[in-house]
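Incident log, entry 3
Record: Trehalose operon repressor (238 residues)
Problem: checksum mismatch between cached and fresh output.
Input:
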Amino acid sequence: MRNNKYLSIYKDWTEKIKSGEIKAGEALPSENDLAEAYDTSRETIRKALNLLSQNGFIQKIRGKGSIVIDVQKMSFPISGLVSFKEISKNFNMEPITTVHDFGLVKPDPFMKQQLNASSKDEIWKVIRSRTIGGEHIILDKDYFLKKYVPTLTKQICESSIYEYLEKELQLNISFAKKEIVVEDCTEEDRGYLDLEGFSHIVVVKNYVYLDNASLFQYTESRHRLDKFRFVDFARRGV
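Fresh output:
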């Protein structure tokens, strides 16, 4: 029975987290305090904490201990091509968009590669953070080829770029290639986001095409690890 005690402790804490008795962002008691409370060894407590971490209930952060993760994560579709404004309708709170950098730039070597751009091209650069529930948790870095998007304003970027592109510019946005990776946080991430001690970030890279197969947009959407889950629906062919 003692060998399975860590499972009992794990179950006890998952129920507390799921019920909301322990809120997201709160720290669990120390290993010593838990060992004393459950009349067991620190090794048993570590096994229970490791299981909580592996299953997405807590995040161990140096200097802060074991922090409870929000198990009610916001869902982002993987396969769909939708704007943040459209996705945000499913949130229980109103997101706020802040534009940090906006303007026309000449493509550097990285942008030339991502957008198949030449030195003669100009690119709209848009850096925006998304605040949800009082926390800056998404950093969107958008790049549009000016030859497809001749005009753009900061005010449009604060609202919905896709709404403007489709309704005003009459662009037919067709499909996107996506790549999802986990990267080390950059100084830019730390400057614009509330990272709460996280050292890594989920990055969704989008290469977006018009209906004539022209690549016109490259985006990096950088999400804080504990706030989102990325979902899809798949059907097996017959």
